[in-house]
Amino acid sequence: MNSPHVPSMHEANRLDALRQLELLDTAPSEAFDRITRMAAQLFQLPIAAVSLTDANRQWFKSKVGVEHSAIPRLQAPCAAVADSGQMVAVPDLLDSECFRDSPLADSGIRFYLGAPLTTKAGHCLGAMCVLGTEPRAVTDADRSTLADLAAMVMAQIELQHALGRVDPVSGLPNRNQFVSDVRDLGIVAGQGEPQLAALVSLATPEELSDAMRVMGSAWLDDIVRSATPALRRLAGGGKVYHVGTTQFAFLAPLGASLVRFSGTLLGWLGERTPTGQASFLTTTTVGLVRFAVGQDAPLDVLRNLYSAAHDARDAESGLRVYSPEQDAAYRHRFWLISELGRALAQPDELYLAFQPKVSLRDGACGGVEALLRWNHPEAGAIPPGEFMPIIESTSLARATTEWVLEAALRQLSSWHAAGSTLQVAVNVSAVNLEEPDFCDRVLDGLARHGLPSASLALEMTESALMRKPKAAHDTMTRLAQGGVKIAIDDFGTGYSSLAYLQEMPADVVKIDQSFVRGMEKDQRTLALVTTMIKLSHDLGHRVVAEGVETAEVAQLLRDAGCDEAQGYYYARPMAPGLLAGWLAARAA
Q1: Would you say 533 and 516 are in contact if contact means Cβ atoms under 8 Å apart?
Q2: Does one domain contain both 206 and 274?
Q3: Per residue in 204-228, pLDDT tens?
């Protein structure tokens, strides 16, 4: 039997195997407690435990009838189980030469039976044991039952370690274990106790994607392995969890203050010096969350950590404390995306409103812009400023443009059948311009509804044109050759060069409302708008001014030679029926 004070190579390997499992000093777990309760009931004994043999102590992962969490290893029967790897039976501790003077015997324990907890590699971690205060004979049935219970404990340990509880690269407990441990934390620290958690993100998804394309997965594994020791030190010896590709979470010591804990994290960020290529390819951020033990769901804690670490990208310090307000805004955005995807398949939630474009020469209305509107069944009317900006950044861009285009063509067909020659303009995004079949879909739609190509105008922003200039130019050229009119929307707010604008097959330039509103009060803005109009005319484009709200601005635009105007001075966006009345009133 090996002395715990002079570790042999076998003992060192055994301790290493025990510590790699990350079981010592962890919170109680119902999975283990269930087995321990079963042991006490089967043997009709007051005490049962899952006892792990550390270097100088026996630590109880699970226990029944025991108040303390650990006892000294010296003279503990469970230590004899770990040393021998065999079941140890002591019918009466007072009759045992080894244990009659042990702390257990002094505390009144007379009976002990312990079965080894042995890994597949042959390392004995400790014992599944039952104890009593009266001497008791041990039967073969007792041995068999306890061996089965020990096997159940090892199955649970191996399940947690091998099936979804430990990351194979870092060797750290993973997301599932974090969730389990946060849930079990309420058993150790009282319900509602304040707690702090941190999440360290070593790189953004974009950085990972770019680096992986060049260097492969081995580079990622190296980053994770090299960062693990520093993260362990940052956690102050506490458990570190590998909860994402390059994301690690850990809990602050119970009772830690937000100021001190965040100061520690900020100091680590300031001193952190990643090695090798990671030093210039990655950006480290830290998210910090306050939560109530036993009240906040573990998955919510983890989600809030992810959110805070993501928001930390915009913080100069690289650290951000979770903000419920920012999170609510992000969740609302996610809700909008989800609901809009659903609304696209509904018959009457989405609809089009049409805003007239009026000639500044004779006041005639030759065209309208189709604008998407949304009347949610529960939230009511959702302003387009809330949902339109998020469309282009999601996979909804294609489906939304498809919906708007089809609805606009149906309405246009109805107007043309009634004798109107209105032109309808539809906004398209950068994603649409990059779709290889976009031009074909537009032309096929016009042909299907029996409409002349010139009755449709497509409006696209400068920023959309510049995202992938060649693809945008090719798409615009094909559409223009097919007879579709092209308009550059929000002119002046993007980054396109004059040389590029000269090459674009656009028919119309729309001056953004940010220049038009208030131009009557600012000579510099008036001069800028006047120059835009002249430049666009020199390039062969018609000019439409957006955001016209007063007669004075309309006159200034007319004097500057602007062709058309669009804005509340003339009409707000309106349903087709109201538009018909508006057109009739102007014709009267």
Answers
A1: no
A2: yes
A3: 888 888 888 777 778 888 888 888 8
